[in-house]
Structure prediction request, 349 residues.
Amino acid sequence: CKPSSISNLQSPISMTILAYTEETFGILTDDQLYLDCVLVKPAATPDHKLQAIRVWVPKYPLTKDSVLVCAQHQVNAGGPDGSAAHLVFDLRGTGYSDGFNDDNRFELDLHAVGEWAKERFPQATTTFLGFPTLTNGRVYVWPLREGGVIESYYYPPAGRKLAPPCLLYLATYGQFAPADDAICDSFAEAGFAVYGMDPLRYLLHASVKRPLSPQDLEKDMEQLVQMLPSPPIIIARPLGAGLGLVWAGRVESIKGLISIGSAQRGVRAAHIFHNHNPHTYLLARYARKVSPRPLAIIKHEGHPLGGDEDELNTLMQSSLSPHRLERTSEITPSLLHNLVRWVQAESKR
Prediction:
């Protein structure tokens, strides 16, 4: 299918001169289905100079429309001479791709996209952002202020509690992988109403018109809490830990926070966060405001995003009781369950 360029004048980012172009085309799978694709490229960078291809994987049954803004916003922020292009596509049987609704062999789609990327951009590194399916979770898209949305994954609680405890799980930026799915599922089996999310998808949608202030984030969380069955405990994985600290520090209804790994790096992107003043998102300030609600800070040792020792010590020293700093070589469901039980116990004191 011959690529064709399409106008980007209707993009939500079109209030400024755009730094990207778009191509629409099809990728053929091994079982002869065409996947409908849009490639968002830096406007002035030829194919052979691109160093990275980011592939946004929609969460079934959503289509590429759920992540197109994410791709546009990221490439636009990199400028016309950027080194990364972003691909969005419809999974088989969804959107404009071939296939049937009951054909969920999405591994064939991911393989085809990966092979296409290797053939067209042999010099570039390809990264898949997200995974298409959930084991037991249900996909929801909730509206927020000014056209923003939160894509969330709901895991219904086991049992018949009238008011089950609520857990909000923030995955690492750009990822909501099978391991995250399994953790959320384990908490649902333990009786929690669990809402998972890729915080990067939310942040890119929310900041498309302007970078986000802490006040913007506070308003979004207050609105989200109203849609949840009860105020949540937050588990925030690396990078998303920064967002978790801002939310827990500014929204008093949040019952507690488990912050894992690198946090400050997660609030550095200038196209997402209004951070010209370094004190605006100085996370030690927010860590202090979490008290008297519980705060657990976790260093994931041996992980590239596991957290800098000095950063995590500063967060710990800045925060107030009840708080704890833990170090672990592996983030397991049992560890997280123990930490959540600690948060619940401290909240009742």
